[in-house]
What we know:
The chain has helices at about 95, 110-120, 150-160, 215-220, 255-270, 345-365, and strands at about 5-10, 15, 20-25, 35-40, 55-60, 65-75, 80-90, 105, 125-130, 140, 160-165, 170-175, 185, 190-200, 205-210, 225-230, 240-245, 270-280, 295-300, 305-320, 320-330. The protein is α+β, with helices and mostly antiparallel strands and about 375 residues long. Helix 2 (about 110-120) packs antiparallel against helix 3 (about 150-160). The chain has six helices and 21 strands. Strands 1, 2, 3, 4, 5, 6, 7, 13, 14, 18, 19, 20 and 21 form a 13-stranded mixed sheet that branches. About 15% of the residues lie in helices and about 35% in strands.
Amino acid sequence: MSDDTTTILVGGIPISEWTSVRVTRSVERVVSDFDFAITDLNPGQWRYPIVPGDACQVFIGNDLVLTGYIDRYTPAFSSRQHSITVSGRSKTQDIVDCSAVWEGSQLMNGTVKTISENLCTPFGVSVVTLADVGPVVPRRNLNIGETPFEVIEPLARLRGLLIYDDVAGNLVLSSVGTDKAASGFKSGENVQSASMTYAMDGRYRSYSAYRRKTVAKLLDTGKESNLIATVNDFDVPRRRTKFIVAETYDAGGDVAARRAAWEMARRKGRSASVHLTCDSWRDSMGALWAPNTLAPVSLPSLGLDDVTWLISEVVFLRDAQGTRAQLTLMDRRSFLPEPYAWPFRSDLAEALRAAKEKQQAQAKGQKVSNP
Length: 371
């Protein structure tokens, strides 16, 4: 295979005569996908048997870029041409599409990694960890009809992990990337076109986290007894407030406080994003652009000077307009997982809250009456 020849390997047969190619990978999606097409075929010219459901691998040059299955095979014709389109997704599609199976329906005594492995193994999906997955997670019941992804995603957030797929079709549990590409994107060098979005509509000047109590008490947001923490974004030019209520009981208020800080960092990071088209699929060392990788960006005409941002999504394209990559990049803080507290039952939460308040009162030497 020559450099950047795009090939689908199906049943051991490489197919590379494509006239149109698209492969999309992202750190914000669990399933990568592709569309390949060939046109101007003579009747009977297509000689490759492709059946929806076939296992496949997609290569760019000698580099594996996706491992999954053929989803759709679409032949078509008109008075002027014949065409065939083939589309598919990575192996992780099954953990997003299908219902999870777990004997006993109780997830307990496992880490995010071991629970993910048990949920993914029946679908032939392996789990790769690129960060500390933390200790055993609290017990959780599996609801009928839930997909493995719907179970794994909140567990990953609980441990501050991103989830996406890799080129081998594995599920990846990772922190926000710190690896850097060998080169980046610069006006006048390898950027064919670019646009920046600067936004203020999603940002607030203050983010206040409140403790969840009764509805009546929450109506009075001025009560400092309910307020856990406030963080400010002084770059917002006018008074815009955001109140965050702890969805679950959090004895120390730590998760709610971190949630307020996360809201500010994420919204601030996503208030500036760049979408660009690069003239190559690879960096200066020949590595394919990859999501969750940092890359330098310099686009002075758009007001963006020498920043290092995270690649969120990369789309490899080849068609009549040539070979190019479309990328989305943002500040890495934009991708920090949302702090998450495990949901206790309301009665247990109230008992824990009462016990904590009693302990605090006793520490201050106050008289405490038993309920």
